[in-house]
Amino acid sequence: MGFYTERVVPRIVNVACGTKSAVPLRRRVCEGLTGEVVEIGFGTGHNVPYYPPTVTSVTAVEPSDLGWRLAADRVAAAGVPVRRAGLDGQSLPLDDDTFDAALSTWTLCTIPDVDAALREVRRVLKPGGTLHFVEHGLAPETDESVRRWQRHLDPLEQRLFGGCHLDRPIVELVTAAGFTITELDVFYEKGSPKTIGAFSLGVATSGSLSEE
């Protein structure tokens, strides 16, 4: 990774993901989290204040050392133990069937091999464990003009924001990894351009890998 990716992008993300408009979405996506939680793409810890009291511990997966340092105050103020374990969501150094829930917020857009990352999340979840997610991605099929703009702007988005994609079909990716979506809200974020504001917020359940 170069200087821009290592030293600049985490600061941009810290500001961009710390907006007031994100707070209601963070509250919603964290509702129902319980027990031991693995959070992929922990970033600078903006979800920490919204962990419900049912959470007993959080294992954070975060590739950026700077991002983890920027999260220090939030981690210190957390009401539950938060530890960093692993840098790469595509290869988690965690045991099978360990976690009760997983959390992903605006992360699946950036991970290079998102299919591998989702399979890893499913592997480390206990059977019946839940994945809570809020992500931006490909606009609905009814908005083909928005989709065209997303595909057109995607190379620029990747360069400016550390590999972030505008056009990933989030719901399809989650289900293709073997999850069953039990709650889903697909919408445009108010006040955002549709190219970056096509959001999916939901909960998906993991079955046992041995069932496949």
Could you list the spans in which at least 5 consecutive residues all have pLDDT below 50?
none
Number of helical regions? 8
What is the second-level CATH architecture? Answer: 3-Layer(aba) Sandwich
The top-level CATH class is: Alpha Beta
CATH homologous superfamily identity: Vaccinia Virus protein VP39
What does this structure look like?
The protein has 212 residues and is of the alpha/beta class. It is built from eight helices and seven strands; from the N terminus they run H-H-E-E-H-H-E-E-H-E-H-H-E-H-E. The model has no long low-confidence stretch (mean pLDDT 93).
List keywords for this structure.
single chain, Rossmann fold, seven-stranded mixed sheet, 8 helices, 34% helix
State the gist of this model.
By secondary structure, this protein is of the alpha/beta class. The protein is built from eight helices and seven strands.
Q: How is the topology of this model organized?
A:
Blueprint: H1 3-16, H2 23-30, E1 35-40, E2 55-61, H3 65-70, H4 72-77, E3 82-84, E4 99-105, H5 114-124, E5 125-136, H6 144-160, H7 170-176, E6 179-188, H8 194-197, E7 198-206
